Amino acid sequence: EVQAKVLVDTIVDSIQDVKGKNIVILDMKELPNSVTDFFIICSGDSNTQVEGISNSVVRKTREELREKPWHKEGLNNSEWILLDYVNVVVHIFYRDVREFYNLEDLWADAKRTDIPNLD
Questions:
Q1: Do 112 and 25 contact (CB within 8 A), yes or no?
Q2: Collapsed DSSP state (helix, strand, coil) of residue 37
Q3: Residue 25 vs residues 76, 92, 108: alpha-carbon distances, Å
């Protein structure tokens, strides 16, 4: 089994490869009743970019780590795609949809790491 940290780093790289923005890593390990070890949240500026980020994550984790998501949701409209790698869950949002759901505040007790945008 690939260690969660390696998976997190690979996913962040794959998001940056296609210019995903405002990447946040939430470390959920210390939270009681947490559903996973890490949330990775990021944004795309269009539905096309959201889908592109998702494809990049799936491709890179498969090629480099031989990992694939156990479950995927939201691929039909590409406003919020969820990729569930069991111990790491990736949330890829269309920018406006992310503000609406505000997962970072919902899980405010988690240890938060903000990844600077590359541009």
A1: yes
A2: coil
A3: 25, 12, 12
Of 103, 72, 104, the residue nearest 85 (C-alpha): 72
Q: What is the pTM of this model?
A: 0.94
Judge whether 12 and 62 are in contact, CB under 8 Å: no
> What is the predicted pLDDT for the residue at 2?
66
3-state secondary structure of 114: strand
- Dihedral pair phi/psi, residue 54, rounded to 5°: -55, -50
- What phi, psi does 34 have (nearest 5°)? -70, 140
- Name the 3-class secondary structure at 24: strand
Which tens digits make up the pLDDT trace of 45-68?
A: 999 999 999 999 999 999 999 999
